[in-house]
Amino acid sequence: MPEPKYIVVGNSSDDPFAIDVAFAMGQSEDVADLISMKRFANSEFCPRFISDEQDFKEIGNKLRGKSIIIVSTSSLVLSRQSLAMRTLMIARAAKENGAAEVILVEPDLYYSAQDRGPRQDLGETLVERAEKDLKKFDGQLFTAKLYAQMLKLAGVDRVLTVHNHSHSVQTMFSEVFEGNFYNLIPYGLYVDYLLNSNIVEYGEEGEGLVLCAPDKGAREFVKEMFSRLGLKKAKFVLLDKERISERKVEITIHPESETKLEDIVGHDIVLFDDMVRTGSTVVQSCQLLKRVNPGKTVFALTHFYASEEGRVKMANTAIDEILTLNTIPTVLNRDVQGRLRKKMVVLKIEKWLALNLCRILDLTQPDMGDSLYAIDMSSKNSRWKHKIWLSEQLKALNPT
Questions:
Q1: CATH assignment of 187-397?
Q2: pTM of the predicted structure, to 2 decimals
């Protein structure tokens, strides 16, 4: 049996997320048996791809013809800075031992919040930046670009991430990696869950359901969700956000919103966003929506890396339930969730990510069974209604 061309590793040997991605791609060997995360007595990190100690052939070329996939996720044990450095060193170790290609899979792309510098030429934005925005970055670096350049220098050839929010980061990573940057948007996961669970209640054509964008930046994503759900009688609300200070925002209905507050009385509402930190925006948005006595308010987001302050805020009764992905796996830790655990549903995306990786790399797609994701649910509610949509999603990913 020929050795596999693609080898999946993590930037820590016991990362469950990396292990699950590897397993979903059909890798039989454990990550810990493929790479050793050595640390010297002086605390310096030194990764080593494991080889037969008695085999003196092809020294320095044991990875010849191989493609190394590094799966990188956040950790409670190591800082993001430490994990980023580990990724750089693993990529270089792969290339210096003959690897033909290195692919980084980082669902929550590091340093994406640091997506601009203090000048107009430091970060491409959709509109010309005001002086106030330039001043916000005065004295600091365009960290996301430095990170991209360091990854490239270390030997990374392709980067795959999930639902990156920054136009600047997307543009710049595409340039640095010459088009080999993939930003996967999890429309299908949300659509599948909203259609097949009873997290929200609505009629056959979407009567009683509202999708909400918290600001213009989220409008296109939510509009696409609206289209993919195919519920013709659902409604769409666009909110407007004005940031008063770092932790204070003012929320209103946007003048361009197709639906007004008075039109959604008694409706279940799903407010979508890509990420949450302090929770100020989502709580105030849901408080605004609660004024008209909706049926239920659900906050759906991709990257849950809320601070302790944010978790306390989101325990507010204005948010009835939180639906998120495990792009930041610490969300699965009940101690991290705290009081929020009773209203959280987490969709685990390793299988979906593996399927997309196989598609991008033109590999035979593995059998994923009857679901593209697994569920970690603190809420005790019974959820599943029926399964009518999954087969269509699988066909879309594998049209042949």
A1: 3.40.50.2020
A2: 0.91
